[in-house]
Fold:
Amino acid sequence: MGKYFGTDGFRGEANVNLTSTHAYRIGRYLGYYFSKNRPARIVIGKDTRLSGYMFEYALVAGLMASGAKTYLLHVAPTPCVSYNVKEEQFDCGIMISASHNPYYDNGIKIIDADGHKIPAQLEEEIEQYIDAPNDDLPLVTKNAIGKTIDFSIGRAHYLRHLQSLPSHSWEGLRVGIDCANGAASSLAKPLFTQMGAQVYVIHNKPNGTNINKNCGSTHTESLQTFVKDNGLDIGFAYDGDADRCFAVDNTGRLVNGDLIMYLCASYFHRQGCLNKNTVVSTLISNIGLRLALNAQGIELVQTDVGDKYVSECMVKNGYNLGGEQTGHIILGDYAQTGDGLLTSLMLMEILASEKSSLSDLLEGIQIFPQLNVNVPVTDKQLAYEDEDLQKTVSAITKELGAEGRVIVRQSGTEPLLRLMVEGKNDTICQTHIDHLMAVLTAKGYVY
Structure:
């Protein structure tokens, strides 16, 4: 990870550690970088945060000052940007979003011409330019100054693409959707209605400050209650930029990314279309996922935490299914990045094809108790490398043996240490989490 760019772009609190000056300089460098031979074509999307317009205009100013042509999708999911970058042959795409974070945070994600996140080398170059004392990049003049083009049609292109994928009718299926008051708010209902489902949408009235507030994939309680109380067949919860998805089964049970990967892998395996009989997940995926997949003859390959690492592994090795427990699911035959709406379509296809409830389809997997805690710390690097903490991790690992795991890692986007303990029961997990917390508190890292 760099100074500004983490596992999911440049993220911070608006006007605190992510400012319009940062956005302007990112635009300046990208416009310069991609306009060396001809004016660059760059597409921008944003979610519904109050600060989105500020960063959008700052990026546009920088891009135009470097001679780039900028195409505005306006409010659109991150996967919509990724889709349009590749299909419309843009030089790169920019998504303004802090994903599942509160409204006062924002972020800038940059997507390459193939629809993937840009390489680390380009991120490093942008960081160096941001911190440069002087702006030495040339400013274009006269008719070389860039242009800004309304590209809201790109949202329709993306929606039509999704609507073309299902092969079964969803007639009679009752679906609840939580849009997190985010980027999916205007797209989800027409997508599902087109296929014949009865659709009930909640949290789809964004006002700039209610994105992810007690709703969406980080707060699924209201959707779980809604699905159960209304007798729905399934529910879907997205995050702010709709690149991740959690589901809720017909009993109101939360279906996280691990369970979604299990459902998709099992279905692909039965259909004979799971490339190399392999699924890619991150290190925090539950032990139960591996055991359930292995029982069907499916291999599980694991990467560092972050959907960018899952994507890189899939592309390098030719796998077509991967994801994270947090709901980033990459369906490689249809998209280059995690896509909450696309994930929903695949689960609907599975329901329609198997003619079975989601709860019945999940009977083949047993999830081990797993406790995850986010710890705000004064210095995540120093805390992570602390000798006493690492000794404690080693001791817990030895005690758990083959019946559990402990993972301590730094957040890629926030000043947090993320603690995860997996074991035979909740008591074991809580005991070890308490031990780790005690060490961090005693050393003065927790605030």
